[in-house]
Every structure is written in structure tokens, then in C-alpha cells.
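We were asked to recover a plausible sequence for a given structure. The inputs and outputs are reproduced exactly as logged, with field labels preserved.

PROBLEM: sequence recovery
POSITIONS: 122
GIVEN STRUCTURE:
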């Protein structure tokens, strides 16, 4: 499976090469990339807009729709990696640090099965 084969660093390098080959670096500032990331995320969300949760399995079983969703997800990931490259941020460290912060903010023993803080639970 490619997720097991390709490292985050390798994917970042492929995105960096793709951008460099087209000389797009001048367009890839934090503002433009963050906006592009949001736009691509919105395009991904469009595939699920107005779809009830019970309709999701059928939607995801449609090969054409699944391919479109896959492409949008890849666009989101590519812009995320490009933004990490532009900002020179280590994305792996950022994710691990954020998971640590979230583990403190949302301890498993208090949030298991809940999506909000226990004080708001009814």
C-alpha cells in the first residue's frame, strides 16, 4: 500500500519538484496557498453536501464519485504539503505536537464516545 511506502518527506519533495518544474514558486506564498487549500477543501465538501449519513455508503460505492472524491482529497493534501514547504514547517512534528496538545485537552477517559467537553454533555 503506498501510504506505507511513501513518506511524508518524499511526498513533500514530489510537490516541491512539481512546483519548481513549472516555476510556480512566486505564486506559492502563504496567503495564496492557504486560500487554495480552503477552496479545495470546499470542493471536497461539495461531494457530501446534502447527502444524508445513511446515503454515504452508496455514494462511496460509486466508482466515478469515489474517483472524484479521491482527486479532491489529493488536491487538499498537495496544497497542504506545498504550504508546509513554503512555510518551511515540519508537518510531522506539527501533527505530533498537535496530537499531544489534543490528548491533554481531550483525555480519552473523559471523551470516549463523546464529541464535546463532558461539562456540556446531557
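RECOVERED SEQUENCE:
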Amino acid at each position: 500500500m503506498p501510504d506505507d511506502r511513501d513518506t511524508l518527506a518524499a511526498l513533500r519533495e514530489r510537490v516541491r519538484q512539481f512546483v519548481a518544474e513549472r516555476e510556480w514558486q512566486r505564486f506559492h506564498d502563504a496567503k495564496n496557498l492557504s486560500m487554495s487549500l480552503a477552496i479545495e477543501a470546499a470542493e471536497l465538501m461539495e461531494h457530501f453536501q446534502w447527502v444524508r449519513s445513511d446515503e454515504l455508503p452508496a455514494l462511496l460505492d460509486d466508482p466515478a464519485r469515489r474517483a472524484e472524491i479521491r482527486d479532491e482529497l489529493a488536491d487538499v493534501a498537495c496544497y497542504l504539503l506545498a504550504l508546509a514547504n513554503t512555510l518551511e514547517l515540519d508537518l510531522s512534528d506539527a501533527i505530533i505536537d498537535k496530537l499531544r496538545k489534543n490528548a491533554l485537552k481531550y483525555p480519552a477517559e473523559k471523551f470516549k464516545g463523546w464529541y464535546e467537553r463532558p461539562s456540556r454533555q446531557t
